[in-house]
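Sample 3 of the quickstart, ligand S-adenosyl-L-homocysteine:
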Amino acid sequence: MNKFILVGKNIEEIEKFMVDNNQSKYRARQIFNWLYLKSADSYDKMTDLPVSTRELLKEKTLINSIFIKDKQISKDGTIKFLFELSDGNYAEAVLMRFDNRANLTACISTQVGCPMGCLFCATAKLGFVRNLNTEEIIQQIFLIQSDTGLKVTNIVYMGQGEPLLNFDNLMSSIKIFRECFQIGARRITVSTCGIIPGIEKLAELNFQSTLAISLHAADNEKRKQIMPVSKKYSFDNLIETLKKYTNMTSRRVTIEYVLMKDINDSTQDAKNLAYAIAKLKCNVNLIIYNQNEKSDYKKPLRENVLKFKYILEASGKKVTIRLERGSDIDAACGQLSAKMKNV
Ligand code: SAH
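Result:
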């Protein structure tokens, strides 16, 4: 018998399950609160439910369908979670806390592996296995919260996979994070390598979370060399689409730019970038390349990073340098690469 999986369902679905099983409808709200507000990971923690209801739930439901297989803690406090999915695949998520900030940010995955093939990224080396379903996306946050006893305040869709190629599950998971986990739209960021039809759909839906774009180059020729997606959706079309997006949603986008030594970190690159995004309502987030042994790309020199930042700032943009987190446990950007057993 297929059991009814609780985490990932909304209140109406849990109510229907309860009514179909001859239970009072109002019990659904109690279960909902246990799951989403208290991250209860066992039925016995749901102390205001009658024992008979708990027995029924044990028989007919599962709280979660994915499980924590491994956990690594970095010296900076970042935690990387490896989840085992019901078909034996793996997914990863990362929990980060930044000093002096109350925010607790979780970086979650939307696919097993990734089809985009960015040359510098470790996840790309896995290839694409499959999309995660809505429940598998939601349960990453549920398990992080139940395991640590902490409340996640911010979510970034920057783990494995391309969120805009798993559009429906992305959107339904955001709805549940907002409505059930009570995480505000502005505390959610979706990062894409530039899937234009997906960005257009977000614009039509008047997307109110933050959209981040992995741009990483300042012109199409350079971008095509490191990001094959640019062969299909060109740099210029991407920037035009983003301009329309910011007009339609009245939201600024975030331009992410991974600086790689001698690839895209020169003064000329910075000037080209400033020019390309001059009329785009955006902030810029510079990321220092995380080296890994599977690739030849290298970190930029510190002075080049600062020069790059200065040039963009001088052009009027707000620029931040992303703090590196969890690189000692391969949890930093572009380092998520676990897929299957024994890999
Ligand atoms: N597919 C989406 C979501 C992944 S986000 C996207 O491309 O935006 C992961 C981010 O880490 C992307 O910006 C990616 O380009 C970046 N990245 C990949 N490898 C990296 C590395 N080694 N060092 C730093 N950032 C990297």
